[in-house]
Amino acid sequence: MVEQIVILDFGSQYTQVIARRIRECNVYSVILPYNTPAREIAALKPRGLILSGGPSSVYAPDAPLPDRGLFQLGVPILGICFGVQLLAHYLGGKVERGQKREYGKGTLRVLDKSCALFEGLPSSLQVWNSHGDKLTRLPRGFAVVAASDNSDYAVIEQREKRFYGFQFHPEVAHTPRGREILSNFVHKICGCGKEWTMRNYIDQAVEDIRAQVGRGHVILGLSGGVDSSVAAALIHRAIGSQLTCIFVNNGLLRAREADVVRQVFGKHFQVKLQYEDATRLFLKRLKGVTDPERKRKIIGKTFIEVFQAATQRAGKADFLAQGTLYPDVIESVPISGNPAALIKSHHNVGGLPKRMKFKLVEPLRCLFKDEVRVLGLELGLPPEIVYRQPFPGPGLAVRCLGELTPKKLTILRQADAIVVEEMKASDWYYKLWQSFAVLLPCKSVGVMGDERTYDFTIAVRAVESQDGMTADWVKLPYELLEKVSNRIINEVSGVNRCVFDITSKPPGTIEWE
Ligand code: XMP
Question: What class has domain 399-500?
Fold first, then answer.
């Protein structure tokens, strides 16, 4: 069994960040609900436990409290913020509402330099706090390791039992040396090695896929996006020609998208690739449709039909492969007042109908997106695919406002290709969440040479975001905007005006429809 750290989730918005940081230390980590019974945790043989932060107070009537048996498992425990209050609550300390709520940057003074958590670190550290309640009496047998401006007990330890508590968040970027502290916890205190790498993961995953699939056949819907591409490359590595990838061209793809997929998967990897050009069907069904939600519904439904027919043509298949990632499968229990619970995607494409009776192959189920990208590179996928910006399922349909026509789609595709090209040439593309062109559904007057023009407008959108749920528009240099605008207007016939979208999300959305 792979060495692992178990993180119990008490509803902090940072729980997944803790899990990612631990994995960046080359140690596998899993997130479990706060109320997972201690015997279930023991069965996983974790090398250590982390109790996440959370919005509650341990004294609230509906406080999320873990199984007391955790403290008898004999494994190291690190409690972060709410987690440290739990140590106090269960082990004889005291927590009170702080005089001053401590939010934001603070300075940690390490008083006991012999604590392994701070090995190799200076005695004064910038940390990020976010808590209201604070520890006012140490739990039994605990000692102080570090203090902050607002707390005498900012870091506490019970060295013999290997229990530790932090009143700050080591996992966030605002605690610049937090990674090293977590690394000390998993390596020096829990004694973990550095086995968790994507190179090792490939071997394990290949073995697992072979064991699951046997001599069966697998179908995979390849979209050209990061997840399905990496899943395809990995499954292909495991079972070669027992995998068939189906790529549906819905006529709403960007320039060269279908070519790249055919080039990379068909030619380079020699994956069995079934290319379904359904452009005409999609555009026929979308004719005259202007409402964004109807567009989405028609596209979703048509995709399922086309995909179903394609799987039948592909011959007998036993399994359907999907690029499901870890954040989609983390089991979360509702915790009252938990802000993270509200932050949920509003448009995960509904999936395939239940009547398509396949067993699922999901080799990325335990991976975070950043791991999937590393895995993709290890498998030999080009950076163009691995670091691709997200692209919505309904494609250019939600960027070509109003009714879709082949002519408008051609204009948008050309303009978008220029945006992407210039963003890549200026090194902005890979720094941003998304950057793309939108075609507005109205015309305006312009002048080109001596002639009056009456043509379409392209809006350029460039946003930064962590997860697509909120986003900021990016202050691109004027010179770059100028170049993009000049090129679009000069090179794309049918466009005489270019504007830049300066709306953040909220109140805007990232896509225009
Ligand atoms: P919005 O426009 O809601 O987009 O701010 C947030 C993120 O989701 C993507 N997006 C979609 N993805 N199907 C998808 O698979 C959709 O219908 C869809 N609509 C938006 C969008 O590109 C952004 O990254």
Answer: alpha beta
